[in-house]
Amino acid sequence: MHELMTREVSYCLPHESLARAAQLMWDQDCGCIPVVDEDRRLLGIVTDRDICMAALHNGRPLHELMASQAMAQRPVRVGPQDDVREAQELMRHARVRRLPVTDGGGRLVGLVSLHDLARQAVSERRLLPRVRMREVARTFAEISRPWAKATTSPAPRRGTRRRTAFAG
After folding, report:
1. Which of 5, 2, 3 is nearest to 81 (CA)?
2. Across-strand partners of 151?
3. For the chain, which domains are there?
4. Residue among 110, 111, 107, 113 at smallest CA distance from 43
5. What number of CA atoms fall less than 13 Å from residue 80's CA on the CB side?
6. CA separation (Å) from 118 to 4, 61, 84, 123?
7. Which spans in 12-107 are helix H?
8. What are the 10-residue block averages of pLDDT along the chain, 168 residues in total?
9. Is residue 150 a contact partner of residue 166, using CB atoms and an 8 Å limit?
């Protein structure tokens, strides 16, 4: 993991606003921000989707909502010495595109993404025995599989609305 992970990772504290988390994502062109304590120990992770859902369900501006209100607690993580295949398996099982990398004390030391795995598999031949494109593609397909399936009711009777339901 050490050679693949991004080491310079933006993060926020639990009491910081979701507006700040969203701004960090925009500035860093990323889809998630780890949430850490003052000692940089990982507490959770906030994704762009988490921010959207928090805004929708709370009906309040992002500057009024805290990272702790939207973060996924106890996120799946890897260590810097963990195997790439283990990271892929964790991504596939948890259906996530990014994994925080923490040291033995739980402190954030990096972030590894499915994009990192794919880029390395293509660009560096020395990693091909460990990261095969077929495995990366399988992981991406599994992560991208919909959680719920949208179904539409039959054509509505005159004067009524069509309903869409989600089954999953």
Report:
1. 2
2. 165
3. 18-167 (3.10.580.10)
4. 107
5. 13
6. 10, 36, 11, 9
7. 18-28, 48-58, 67-70, 84-94
8. 86 97 94 96 95 90 94 94 88 91 96 85 57 65 63 51 43
9. yes
